[in-house]
Amino acid sequence: MPSEPVESGASQDLELGTTEALQQHATRSVIAHKPVSQRKLNFERRRPRWLRECLAEATGVFLYVFPGVAATASFLTNAANPIGVGCAYAVGIAFAIITCAPTSGGHFHPAITLCFAFWQGFPWKKVPYYILSQVLGAFVAGLVMMGMYWPQIQAINAAFIAQGKPLVGNGTPASILCSFPNPDQTNLGFLFMTEFFVDFFIGLIIWACIDPANPFVSPSTVPFMIGLSYAAMIWGFADITIAANMARDLGTRMVAAIFFGREAFTFMNYSPIAILVNIPATFCATALYELLMRDSLSSIGQGHAVHEDGEEGLLRNLSKSGLIDDEEMRRPQAARRQELGKMG
């Protein structure tokens, strides 16, 4: 039977558009979609999953790096409010998660990808593809920003050269793209510890936010909480040099090397700290959460995870823990399942 044409409904109906977000909340009806064609379904079925995931990771990184470096460029070229840099990264991260996480899982950070593989069973074979995609997203974001701000950046370059100032360093044109230490920050150990604790803070907040058993974070607030964790660190420590994400720093640092030379990687021997320290720091943060704060039994009880040996394995664990007795173990399976549901 052919589908009926899609037409606007009564005057109280909401027209199709961003109103789709209200489908589960609005008391007024929203005009229906046109029927989905078989051609569209065939196209979507044939899309390689790996390509969709990689493009989603690259796009997600682009969505938060682009407003972040643009806000930094505005701060340097127009003396804008520095608070805006943290806000731009925070909102960009929220937008990235909202837009791309349904496709790829929303890592957008090589250290987070590695931690998912180590702690949560994310396939190791996907790790290189995800990391390369994340770096690519930051690289493209840096290139696009440089193109859009090129006249202003050229003017700043000319002013710096006329005054005999270097183009690479903190507060220079190159710092729009990636971080550099202040001239007096010659102690690499100090820079290491600053970066480590900033990344540890962000990693711990991310891991707490994505824990399905955490009662204080709802799914709709996760993107903004993670974004705020980045913003808080930018507001607190950007003046003394932080990077916070390997993909963001490496991708945009390569753009800086294109426009400002290889000193973008060699300046004060800082780039290895900016690129690599976030990985061990995030591992330490997630290890703290996994070893001391994770409540896997609560996750199982709420239906977010399963015991590796199924229901029988869960019951054995509950019996050993004293949460159920031997008589409970002998009850019919249906009754036990109902009781487990009540515990969750």
UniProtKB/TrEMBL annotation:
Annotated compartments: Membrane
The keyword Phosphoprotein belongs to this UniProt entry's keyword annotation: no
Record's keyword terms, sorted: Membrane, Transmembrane, Transmembrane helix, Transport
Record-linked Pfam families: MIP
Annotated transmembrane regions: 54-77, 83-108, 129-150, 190-210, 222-247, 267-289
Presence of keyword Chloroplast: no
Protein name (database record): Aquaporin-like protein
InterPro entries on file: Aquaporin-like, MIP, MIP/Aquaporin
Family per similarity comment: Belongs to the MIP/aquaporin (TC 1.A.8) family.
Topology term for the membrane: Multi-pass membrane protein
Coiled-coil regions, chain positions: none
